[in-house]
Amino acid sequence: MEQEVGGSSPPNCTTLIFITICRFFCRAERPSCLALSAMGQHWGISRAEIGLAALSLLSSKRCENWEDVFLRVCKANKRDLDWILMWLGKEYHDAGGEGFWCNHGVIQSSFEEGDLWVIRKDGEAIAFQVGSYAADIACVRRAFQRQGFGKALFAASLARAKRDDVNVLWGECSPISSFPFWRGLGFEQYNDPGSPAILVRRVVGRRFKLPKGRPPSAVQIGFYPEEALYRPGVAAISQYQPRAVLLEDGLVRLGQRIIGIILGGGRDLVIRIEVDGIERCFCKAKYDEATSAGVRYDGPGRNFFVDAVHPTSS
After folding, report:
1. Domain tally for the chain?
2. How far apart are CA 277 and CA 295, in angstroms?
3. Mean pLDDT for the chain overall
Protein backbone atom coordinates (compact mmCIF):
# COMPACT_ATOMS: atom_id res chain seq x y z
CA MET A 1 0.00 0.00 0.00
CA GLU A 2 1.43 3.35 -1.03
CA GLN A 3 0.32 6.82 -0.08
CA GLU A 4 1.39 9.80 -2.11
CA VAL A 5 2.52 12.86 -0.21
CA GLY A 6 0.14 15.37 -1.73
CA GLY A 7 -3.62 15.70 -1.57
CA SER A 8 -6.18 14.58 -4.11
CA SER A 9 -9.13 16.53 -2.71
CA PRO A 10 -10.36 19.80 -4.30
CA PRO A 11 -8.02 22.72 -3.56
CA ASN A 12 -8.80 25.12 -0.76
CA CYS A 13 -6.95 28.02 -2.41
CA THR A 14 -5.55 28.91 -5.81
CA THR A 15 -2.16 27.82 -7.04
CA LEU A 16 -1.07 31.44 -7.19
CA ILE A 17 -1.84 32.03 -3.51
CA PHE A 18 -0.12 28.78 -2.54
CA ILE A 19 3.04 29.71 -4.46
CA THR A 20 3.06 33.18 -2.93
CA ILE A 21 2.75 31.80 0.59
CA CYS A 22 5.43 29.17 -0.08
CA ARG A 23 7.82 31.85 -1.30
CA PHE A 24 7.14 33.92 1.79
CA PHE A 25 8.11 31.00 4.04
CA CYS A 26 11.07 30.05 1.85
CA ARG A 27 12.97 33.32 2.26
CA ALA A 28 15.10 32.10 5.17
CA GLU A 29 16.05 28.67 3.80
CA ARG A 30 15.77 26.31 0.84
CA PRO A 31 13.18 23.65 1.66
CA SER A 32 12.96 20.38 -0.20
CA CYS A 33 9.99 19.82 -2.47
CA LEU A 34 9.10 17.08 0.00
CA ALA A 35 8.54 19.71 2.68
CA LEU A 36 6.52 21.74 0.19
CA SER A 37 4.39 18.69 -0.52
CA ALA A 38 3.79 18.17 3.20
CA MET A 39 2.67 21.78 3.52
CA GLY A 40 0.32 21.38 0.58
CA GLN A 41 -1.18 18.20 2.06
CA HIS A 42 -1.76 20.00 5.33
CA TRP A 43 -3.69 22.76 3.56
CA GLY A 44 -5.65 20.40 1.29
CA ILE A 45 -3.88 21.43 -1.91
CA SER A 46 -4.34 19.04 -4.84
CA ARG A 47 -1.43 17.03 -6.24
CA ALA A 48 -1.53 19.00 -9.49
CA GLU A 49 -1.35 22.33 -7.68
CA ILE A 50 1.56 21.12 -5.55
CA GLY A 51 3.36 20.18 -8.77
CA LEU A 52 2.76 23.60 -10.29
CA ALA A 53 3.93 25.30 -7.11
CA ALA A 54 7.07 23.13 -7.05
CA LEU A 55 7.76 23.93 -10.71
CA SER A 56 7.55 27.63 -9.93
CA LEU A 57 9.90 27.28 -6.96
CA LEU A 58 12.30 25.16 -9.00
CA SER A 59 12.46 27.92 -11.60
CA SER A 60 13.44 30.32 -8.83
CA LYS A 61 15.95 27.74 -7.44
CA ARG A 62 14.11 27.48 -4.13
CA CYS A 63 13.57 23.70 -4.31
CA GLU A 64 16.10 20.88 -4.32
CA ASN A 65 14.71 18.48 -6.90
CA TRP A 66 11.50 17.72 -8.75
CA GLU A 67 11.32 13.99 -8.00
CA ASP A 68 10.85 14.55 -4.24
CA VAL A 69 7.43 16.09 -4.86
CA PHE A 70 6.07 12.66 -5.68
CA LEU A 71 7.88 10.73 -2.96
CA ARG A 72 5.64 8.10 -1.40
CA VAL A 73 5.01 6.95 2.13
CA CYS A 74 4.53 3.18 2.01
CA LYS A 75 3.69 0.30 4.29
CA ALA A 76 6.93 -1.45 5.16
CA ASN A 77 7.95 -4.82 3.74
CA LYS A 78 10.39 -7.29 5.31
CA ARG A 79 13.35 -5.78 3.47
CA ASP A 80 12.44 -2.34 4.85
CA LEU A 81 12.29 -3.75 8.37
CA ASP A 82 15.68 -5.42 8.08
CA TRP A 83 17.24 -2.27 6.67
CA ILE A 84 15.73 -0.08 9.44
CA LEU A 85 16.97 -2.38 12.20
CA MET A 86 20.41 -2.44 10.61
CA TRP A 87 20.91 1.34 10.56
CA LEU A 88 19.20 1.85 13.91
CA GLY A 89 21.66 -0.60 15.47
CA LYS A 90 24.63 1.12 13.85
CA GLU A 91 23.47 4.59 14.93
CA TYR A 92 22.85 3.33 18.46
CA HIS A 93 26.40 1.97 18.63
CA ASP A 94 27.96 5.09 17.09
CA ALA A 95 26.06 7.41 19.46
CA GLY A 96 27.08 5.52 22.58
CA GLY A 97 23.69 4.05 23.37
CA GLU A 98 21.34 6.78 22.12
CA GLY A 99 18.56 6.26 19.60
CA PHE A 100 15.56 4.06 18.89
CA TRP A 101 17.38 0.71 18.72
CA CYS A 102 16.09 -0.03 22.22
CA ASN A 103 12.59 -0.03 20.68
CA HIS A 104 13.41 -2.68 18.08
CA GLY A 105 10.84 -5.06 19.57
CA VAL A 106 8.09 -2.45 19.19
CA ILE A 107 9.17 -1.78 15.61
CA GLN A 108 9.15 -5.51 14.83
CA SER A 109 5.66 -5.88 16.32
CA SER A 110 4.31 -2.88 14.40
CA PHE A 111 5.56 -4.44 11.16
CA GLU A 112 3.80 -7.71 11.97
CA GLU A 113 0.59 -5.77 12.69
CA GLY A 114 0.82 -3.79 9.43
CA ASP A 115 1.38 -0.52 11.25
CA LEU A 116 4.91 0.38 10.12
CA TRP A 117 5.26 3.08 7.45
CA VAL A 118 8.41 4.03 5.57
CA ILE A 119 9.95 6.42 3.06
CA ARG A 120 12.45 4.91 0.65
CA LYS A 121 15.31 6.55 -1.18
CA ASP A 122 17.08 4.56 -3.88
CA GLY A 123 15.07 1.53 -2.76
CA GLU A 124 16.19 1.69 0.86
CA ALA A 125 14.08 2.74 3.86
CA ILE A 126 15.57 5.95 5.27
CA ALA A 127 12.64 7.07 7.48
CA PHE A 128 9.89 5.24 9.32
CA GLN A 129 6.88 5.74 11.55
CA VAL A 130 5.23 3.34 13.98
CA GLY A 131 1.51 4.11 14.05
CA SER A 132 -0.98 4.86 11.28
CA TYR A 133 -2.15 8.15 12.79
CA ALA A 134 -0.21 9.59 15.71
CA ALA A 135 3.41 8.50 15.64
CA ASP A 136 4.32 6.15 18.47
CA ILE A 137 7.83 6.32 17.00
CA ALA A 138 9.03 8.46 14.11
CA CYS A 139 12.65 8.41 13.02
CA VAL A 140 14.74 9.56 10.08
CA ARG A 141 18.14 8.07 9.43
CA ARG A 142 20.77 10.50 10.69
CA ALA A 143 22.30 11.18 7.28
CA PHE A 144 18.92 12.24 5.89
CA GLN A 145 17.64 14.42 8.72
CA ARG A 146 16.55 18.05 8.19
CA GLN A 147 15.49 17.33 4.61
CA GLY A 148 11.72 17.21 5.12
CA PHE A 149 11.27 13.44 5.52
CA GLY A 150 9.85 13.73 9.03
CA LYS A 151 7.31 16.27 7.80
CA ALA A 152 6.40 13.94 4.94
CA LEU A 153 5.68 11.09 7.37
CA PHE A 154 3.44 13.44 9.35
CA ALA A 155 1.64 14.70 6.22
CA ALA A 156 0.78 11.13 5.26
CA SER A 157 -0.44 10.24 8.75
CA LEU A 158 -2.56 13.41 8.82
CA ALA A 159 -4.14 12.39 5.51
CA ARG A 160 -4.93 8.93 6.92
CA ALA A 161 -6.47 10.51 10.02
CA LYS A 162 -8.72 12.73 7.91
CA ARG A 163 -9.71 9.79 5.72
CA ASP A 164 -10.60 7.60 8.72
CA ASP A 165 -12.34 10.30 10.80
CA VAL A 166 -9.62 10.42 13.47
CA ASN A 167 -9.88 13.81 15.19
CA VAL A 168 -6.91 13.98 17.56
CA LEU A 169 -3.28 12.93 17.06
CA TRP A 170 -1.31 12.16 20.22
CA GLY A 171 2.41 11.96 20.80
CA GLU A 172 5.29 11.95 23.24
CA CYS A 173 8.40 14.01 22.55
CA SER A 174 11.34 11.63 22.78
CA PRO A 175 13.96 12.90 22.82
CA ILE A 176 12.76 16.07 24.52
CA SER A 177 14.65 18.10 21.91
CA SER A 178 12.05 16.99 19.31
CA PHE A 179 9.37 19.25 20.85
CA PRO A 180 10.05 22.23 18.50
CA PHE A 181 9.56 19.88 15.51
CA TRP A 182 6.14 18.73 16.70
CA ARG A 183 5.14 22.23 17.75
CA GLY A 184 5.97 23.39 14.22
CA LEU A 185 3.48 20.82 12.91
CA GLY A 186 0.65 22.27 14.99
CA PHE A 187 0.94 20.07 18.09
CA GLU A 188 0.43 21.61 21.52
CA GLN A 189 1.72 20.42 24.86
CA TYR A 190 -0.74 19.13 27.45
CA ASN A 191 -0.27 18.08 31.04
CA ASP A 192 -0.66 14.59 32.47
CA PRO A 193 0.14 14.55 36.20
CA GLY A 194 1.13 10.89 35.97
CA SER A 195 3.78 11.37 33.28
CA PRO A 196 7.13 13.21 33.42
CA ALA A 197 7.36 13.20 29.61
CA ILE A 198 6.52 16.05 27.24
CA LEU A 199 3.15 15.02 25.83
CA VAL A 200 1.62 16.66 22.76
CA ARG A 201 -1.56 16.44 20.74
CA ARG A 202 -3.08 18.01 17.67
CA VAL A 203 -6.78 18.38 16.97
CA VAL A 204 -7.70 17.73 13.34
CA GLY A 205 -10.50 20.24 12.81
CA ARG A 206 -13.14 19.97 10.10
CA ARG A 207 -15.51 22.56 8.69
CA PHE A 208 -18.60 21.90 6.58
CA LYS A 209 -20.51 23.93 4.03
CA LEU A 210 -24.04 24.54 5.20
CA PRO A 211 -26.91 24.37 2.68
CA LYS A 212 -28.23 27.73 1.63
CA GLY A 213 -31.80 28.81 2.24
CA ARG A 214 -32.30 26.82 5.43
CA PRO A 215 -33.31 28.51 8.71
CA PRO A 216 -30.50 28.95 11.28
CA SER A 217 -30.52 27.12 14.61
CA ALA A 218 -28.97 28.32 17.86
CA VAL A 219 -26.81 25.41 19.06
CA GLN A 220 -24.75 25.25 22.24
CA ILE A 221 -22.54 22.26 23.01
CA GLY A 222 -20.52 21.90 26.18
CA PHE A 223 -18.19 19.21 27.52
CA TYR A 224 -17.96 18.69 31.28
CA PRO A 225 -16.21 16.51 33.83
CA GLU A 226 -18.28 13.68 35.26
CA GLU A 227 -19.02 15.62 38.48
CA ALA A 228 -21.32 17.97 36.53
CA LEU A 229 -24.03 15.29 36.62
CA TYR A 230 -24.00 15.09 40.40
CA ARG A 231 -23.05 18.56 41.54
CA PRO A 232 -24.54 21.86 40.32
CA GLY A 233 -22.33 24.69 39.19
CA VAL A 234 -19.47 22.62 37.77
CA ALA A 235 -17.78 24.62 35.00
CA ALA A 236 -17.54 23.31 31.47
CA ILE A 237 -14.21 22.10 30.12
CA SER A 238 -15.06 23.65 26.76
CA GLN A 239 -18.12 25.23 25.16
CA TYR A 240 -19.07 25.88 21.55
CA GLN A 241 -21.72 27.83 19.65
CA PRO A 242 -21.26 26.66 16.05
CA ARG A 243 -23.14 27.95 13.05
CA ALA A 244 -25.98 25.56 12.29
CA VAL A 245 -29.06 25.20 10.09
CA LEU A 246 -32.24 23.14 10.39
CA LEU A 247 -32.84 20.68 7.55
CA GLU A 248 -36.24 19.50 6.32
CA ASP A 249 -35.96 16.15 8.12
CA GLY A 250 -35.31 17.86 11.48
CA LEU A 251 -31.57 17.26 11.46
CA VAL A 252 -29.53 20.24 12.67
CA ARG A 253 -26.38 20.44 10.57
CA LEU A 254 -23.31 22.09 12.12
CA GLY A 255 -20.79 24.23 10.28
CA GLN A 256 -17.87 22.57 12.05
CA ARG A 257 -17.05 19.36 13.88
CA ILE A 258 -17.30 19.76 17.65
CA ILE A 259 -14.72 17.61 19.46
CA GLY A 260 -14.52 16.68 23.13
CA ILE A 261 -11.30 15.01 24.28
CA ILE A 262 -11.71 12.12 26.71
CA LEU A 263 -10.46 12.90 30.20
CA GLY A 264 -7.60 11.01 31.83
CA GLY A 265 -7.72 9.11 35.08
CA GLY A 266 -10.65 6.93 34.05
CA ARG A 267 -13.15 9.79 34.31
CA ASP A 268 -16.07 9.88 31.88
CA LEU A 269 -16.72 12.86 29.64
CA VAL A 270 -20.15 14.51 29.91
CA ILE A 271 -21.80 16.37 27.04
CA ARG A 272 -24.65 18.88 27.04
CA ILE A 273 -26.39 19.82 23.78
CA GLU A 274 -28.96 22.59 23.54
CA VAL A 275 -30.85 23.48 20.33
CA ASP A 276 -32.91 26.68 20.14
CA GLY A 277 -33.13 26.88 23.92
CA ILE A 278 -34.21 23.24 24.39
CA GLU A 279 -31.87 20.75 26.04
CA ARG A 280 -31.33 17.79 23.70
CA CYS A 281 -29.12 15.81 26.07
CA PHE A 282 -27.06 16.19 29.24
CA CYS A 283 -25.37 12.89 30.02
CA LYS A 284 -22.16 10.92 29.66
CA ALA A 285 -20.98 11.07 26.08
CA LYS A 286 -20.77 7.28 25.92
CA TYR A 287 -24.46 6.77 26.75
CA ASP A 288 -27.12 5.81 24.20
CA GLU A 289 -28.93 9.08 24.89
CA ALA A 290 -25.92 10.97 23.55
CA THR A 291 -25.56 8.62 20.57
CA SER A 292 -29.18 9.18 19.60
CA ALA A 293 -28.54 12.93 19.71
CA GLY A 294 -25.70 12.60 17.19
CA VAL A 295 -22.62 12.09 19.38
CA ARG A 296 -20.03 9.77 17.82
CA TYR A 297 -16.96 8.06 19.26
CA ASP A 298 -13.46 8.23 17.80
CA GLY A 299 -11.48 5.40 19.42
CA PRO A 300 -8.02 5.98 17.88
CA GLY A 301 -8.26 9.70 18.64
CA ARG A 302 -9.73 9.18 22.13
CA ASN A 303 -12.59 11.66 21.75
CA PHE A 304 -16.28 12.14 21.13
CA PHE A 305 -17.54 14.44 18.39
CA VAL A 306 -20.67 15.93 16.83
CA ASP A 307 -21.25 16.88 13.18
CA ALA A 308 -25.04 17.20 13.43
CA VAL A 309 -27.72 17.08 16.12
CA HIS A 310 -30.36 14.46 15.45
CA PRO A 311 -34.05 15.09 16.08
CA THR A 312 -35.77 13.26 18.94
CA SER A 313 -37.35 9.94 18.00
CA SER A 314 -40.77 11.21 19.10
Report:
1. 4
2. 19
3. 83
